[in-house]
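Box 3.1 A note on notation
Throughout this textbook, protein chains are presented in two layers. The first layer is the amino acid sequence; the second is a token string describing backbone geometry. Keep the layers aligned when reading.
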Amino acid sequence: MKINKTYVVVGLIIAFTLFFELAAHADLGDQLTTITFNEPVQIPGQVLPAGTYLLKLADSDSERNIVQIFNADRTVLYATLQTIPAQRREPTDDTTVTFADQGAGRPEALLKWFYPGLETGNEFLYPKEQQKELAQDRQQTVVANQHAVPDSDTTGAGN
């Protein structure tokens, strides 16, 4: 009888451990990221004013290439954007974004977003003509600090 109770207790401990391990990694599913832009930033179809935004993968079991951009408290959905997978050589522990510098007087364009720890990210799709122009612009990849938002950088991120 003692052996059966031991197996039950061990089984419950394993079940709780697995449950809490899965719950701790739940954010990886939607890749929720908080990012602050200190200057306006172009995304496909519009320009976002300086501010804090939430980027996340849309809730979709079949499509992992749709990114939603919300305001900081998630009360306004600014965009739902189709993306394509983007690869990088080495994952980082922080959010990474790539911008195209479009020149004086024009906002930087957000090209790619990588969630911490992943080699595959999201490349935003712009209209073909604009895509060609952005490919010729100087591109800059920014590894955003997860805990502090620098005042002098174009971006900062948390989460």
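Confidence is low (pLDDT under 50) at residues 6-26, 146-159. Helices lie at 2-24, 27-30, 128-136.
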